[in-house]
Amino acid sequence: MDASSLAMLGIILALLCASAMFSGTETAFTAASRAFVTRRAKEGDRKAITLGRLSERKDRVVAAILVGNNLVNTTATALASALLISWFGEGGVAYASLVMTALLVIFSEVLPKTLALRSPDAAAMRVVPVLSGTMRLLGPVADLVNIVVRGTLRLLGFKTPEADRPGITEDELLGAIDLHGMGHAGPADLAARQERGMLRGVLALDDMTVRDVMTHRSRVVALNLAETPEKLLARVLASPHARFPLWGRDGEEILGVVHARDVLRALQAAGGDAARMDLAAVAHPASLVIETRPLREQLQDFRKAPIKMAMVLDEYGSLKGIVTLEDIVEVVVGQIVQRGEAILGDLAENGEVEVRGDLRVRDINRELGWDLPEDEAATVGGLLVARQRGIPAVGAEVTIGFYALRVLERRGQRIDRLVIRPLPAEAEA
Question: Where is 353: in which H helix or E strand?
Answer without folding.
Answer: strand 353-356
